[in-house]
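Issue: ligand-bound run for zinc ion - logging full I/O for the record.

Environment: standard queue, default settings, no custom constraints.

Inputs:
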Amino acid sequence: MIDYHLHVIAHGDRPMTIENILTYCEVAKKRGIRQMGITEHDRYLDDIDFAAFQEAREESEDVGLRLGIEIDFVPGAEERMERDSTALPYDYVIGSVHRVQGEEVDHPEDRDIYEKMDAYDLYAAYYANVREAALCGRFDVLGHPDLIKIFRTFPDRDITPMLEETADAVAESGIVVDVNAAGLRKPVGEVYPSKKLLEMFHKRDVPIILSSDAHAPDQVGLGYETSVKLVREVGYTQVVTFKDRERGTLAL
Ligand SMILES: [Zn+2]
Ligand SMILES: [Zn+2]
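Outputs:
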């Protein structure tokens, strides 16, 4: 099993020391995870201690360590995204949409955007960004593809065509989708993506990774009973692995 999207520094919660990385590895080992990818938010790029990562990778015997980065996809910020996604010798790069019209959609306190915009328009703008992120060619993995459901704001109108269009763009792009268990810890209470969207991806042969999006050691592999069951039900039999931006596969 793999956990390919998680944060050690998280939101500045702890330094990236060898000890802190190995604490995450211990939890991963206990939970049957054999490959763990650290993917800090790009705004903490300067806090990534690559030497500590390398040493932890050598010391970690049972859990293979990978280094990625989670780029905050913002249309127009190509220079920043290019710089951050090539700053270190990453094994893979995740592109995640966290914003609509520049405002965060997943901030626990600041939910202005949900007041300002009609839910359908908000979803349309969100998924337009998701398609652009997938198709921009900069990323190996598309992070939590339906994050916009986080606070249980749902449009009245049917969004199936919007999801189909998004699944088409994702398939066309060749990007790998992040099946991310963090949604289970949020008000929405379900994995990103939903079963409906995941079925659309599967139908189009879109490959996946599995992740917890842990921001603390005890969250590594959290929710995997649910997400592994989900991906198996949908028909997935393998996940993608990365090393030096080359893909491999691992049977589920
Ligand atoms: Zn994210
Ligand atoms: Zn994340």
